[in-house]
Give the backbone structure.
Amino acid sequence: MLSVNEKAMEIAEEMMDWSEELKIKAMELKNGGKVIDCGINVPGGYEAGLLFTEICMGGFGGCSVSVHKISDIPLAFIDVTTDHPAISCLGAQKAGWRISVDKYFAMGSGPARALALKPKKTYERIKYEDDYEYAVIALESNQLPDEKVIDTIAEACHVDSENVIALVAPTASIVGSVQVSGRVVETAIFKLNELGYDTTKIISGTGCAPIAPVVKDDLMAMGSTNDSVIYYGSVFLTVRGFEEEKFKMVPSSTSKDYGKPFYKTFKDAGYDFFKIDANVFAPAEITVNDLETGKTYHAGHLNSEVILESYGISGI
């Protein structure tokens, strides 16, 4: 059986071995749990961001950084590929675990979810769960977790605290920007799952999105990083069974909240996520190749105007 935690563990060990080169910091807590700081008290970098993203995908996805232009402005882009879309994207990468312990809060993603089954209905849909003695979790937070947080994660994952490895990066960091854009394929898979499509029919997925320039404020960073996917994320899926009504609803432009930088939408909603149309959390465009018919379909479009407004790029 494929184990997302086993594959991710290999990458996490590599990160700890090469922490100085990656500009991250690994530490061991009193309960034996391991924490890898990828951007709170360290600078991190693109290489750390790519490894962080691959861990989020349970080791069943690969990614790289390249440079492309948007309206003649060169920007960093991430390219993501997986041949196990349902497992890597929904079974691991999806930020489906809200971790709240005392005053600590983080959105949890990565392979540890497949041990804790967070949320259980997702794993029932894709018919997958992991069984491994180590739990690897990725936390989006501007605070490092303490022993109590690690104990909570360990208990939910049915492992010893000393067998938990937690990677942490704030949204407003290089690693934070990389890993959010690295969810471009996942957003398409997630949207299809929400629309009722059987995501186990998706054979392979690949996509790219610009990596948002880092801003100082986590709230602003949440906006620009989400916009990277919403307004300029491209996804190509190979499937066995195309359902037009579902796939044409995937692009973010089908949402009533599409059309302006996410931070503005969030502000207009009184900073209440539940007042935002969830359909906006999707890639800008999608192309689908159906192996059953040999036909290929496309929906959605890129929006350079909004993405550049979101990034706030100025000439010098």
The chain has one domain: 4-311. The chain has a mean pLDDT of 97. Residues 4-311 form a domain with the Methenyltetrahydromethanopterin Cyclohydrolase; Chain A, domain 2 fold (CATH 3.30.1030.10).
